Amino acid sequence: GAVVSQHPSWVICKSGTSVKIECRSLDFQATTMFWYRQFPKQSLMLMATSNEGSKATYEQGVEKDKFLINHASLTLSTLTVTSAHPEDSSFYICSARDRPDLVPQYFGPGTRLTVT
Amino acid sequence: RKEVEQDPGPFNVPEGATVAFNCTYSNSASQSFFWYRQDCRKEPKLLMSVYSSGNEDGRFTAQLNRASQYISLLIRDSKLSDSATYLCVVNGVTGGGNKLTFGTGTQLKVEL
After folding, report:
1. Mind listing the pLDDT tens digit for each residue in B7-66?
2. What is the 3-state secondary structure (H, E, C) of A28-39?
3. Which residue of B has its CA nearest to A44?
């Protein structure tokens, strides 16, 4: 089946620094990638949808200037958490699909971010 | 009201038991429905799609009632390896295309 990878698997950073998370589709071209965030004992919450070559669409309440998304190629999307704070500590998961009408999406293994 | 609601559990059941999870969704325009499984600190993985006619995959049976906006998952002959969180997921169409909405999940613990 399709594989989506994420890097890094986990990261610990200091408050005020920026962290970049990569999401790659390994055996298919992903026209659309999604970024989710999951806090402990909560559901996955969609943060933004990124389409290759265009600006990301952010969900209500998600700061686009804080969570920078770049989807420069059909196999790579990046999420940069800028000026990270402890409340940004969470499990970030990406997913990808190769057709707009395709469900379900393929999920990456997630990145656990801890901001100290 | 949450878009997708589930009883968080945990459900502690003995090995071999039959257990059922329920889920309700608020958007009557939702188009497709799924159950995902999520192990601790891992990504969600698709368990099965859910159809109005009901569908079965081995020990797992899923049902959808569109009139009641209700989805269920039945697990028969529970195994230790079934211990996980089960996520009810609903797909709807937005301006940006298909969008998945996740429930908070129901935790299952299968014990010896």
Report:
1. 988 999 999 999 999 999 998 888 899 999 999 989 999 999 998 888 999 999 999 999
2. CCCCEEEEEEEC
3. B102
